[in-house]
Known about the structure:
CATH topology of the largest domain: Rossmann fold
Distance between the termini: 54 Å
Order of helices and strands: HEHHEHHEHEHEHHHHHHHH
Strand order of the largest sheet: 2-3-4-1-5
Largest sheet: 5 strands, parallel
Strand content: 5-15%
CATH class of the largest domain: Alpha Beta
CATH superfamily of the largest domain: P-loop containing nucleotide triphosphate hydrolases
Bound molecules: zinc ion
Shape: elongated
Mean pLDDT: 86
CATH architecture of the largest domain: 3-Layer(aba) Sandwich
Amino acid sequence: xxxxxxxxxxxxxxxxxxxxxxxxxxxxxxxxxxxxxxxxxxxxxxxxxxxxxxxxxxxxxxxxxxxxxxxxxxxxxxxxxxxxxxxxxxxxxxxxxxxxxxxxxxxxxxxxxxxxxxxxxxxxxxxxxxxxxxxxxxxxxxxxxxxxxxxxxxxxxxxxxxxxxxxxxxxxxxxxxxxxxxxxxxxxxxxxxxxxxxxxxxxxxxxxxxxxxxxxxxxxxxxxxxxxxxxxxxxxxxxxxxxxxxxxxxxxxxxxxxxxxxxxxxxxxxxxxxxxxxxxxxxxxxxxxxxxxxxxxxxxxxxxxxxxxxxxxxxxxxxxxxxxxxxxxxxxxx
Length: 334
Ligand SMILES: [Zn+2]
């Protein structure tokens, strides 16, 4: 049976299987965007490793082992999700225990999610284990923040980067997996930063409603010149989503100014787009985008910051920019 992997991950599945076949690497780090379905990729690899009827790069998805792996009750697979529980215990003890437990099959797999959360001590422990790998044990590590992994550990891992997936492919997949038309799927892919699983979630769940509510709010606040109130609408957990809402609507307003109507993404938000493009100069809109980008950089790269405070600062800054009062942001000529 062919594996049922998301189309954008197939290439990486094949690559990893090929590597494992040749026994080139036993420790692999997957560095990717959120919401690309990496757990499913690893699940497929696990099945391929243990399946009783593999044919080339395919597993059967029917044998006992495939079934146990699907149900997440297979003995020789250890999924470690880093959290406080793991931190209180000692990673070394945990891995030691895993490695000492007798194997039921020929191999063992250790899968560490969110490996950017490994402390220096834990990283060094893992490094030692990986440098002298126990027989037939394969390590998979996953991260969305590769910068936070210490370089000595990175240097021992084979890194697979999963980004820049083709937009058209994603739109096609979304069309097939939802009942929405091309324009709406295209819109969702754009807003989700080209992450199809997130786009699907957005179309089928609450996020589309949240988006509408946010834009409705933004419309009113811009009219009243009281941007500060949107502070209460932006939720920390969904910050990347809200940032994309802000970027796309601002870019749409510039496109509207330039009469590039066919390139507008938020086609259902014409009123808001027209309001922004009529009310603000192009330069002011660009400045707005840049200040939000700066904010994003600060928010996403620094851990444990006072999020509420810097969001408040940013909104105040934006309000000033929109009132055309600050000129201290260096801007390339556009
Ligand atoms: Zn099987």
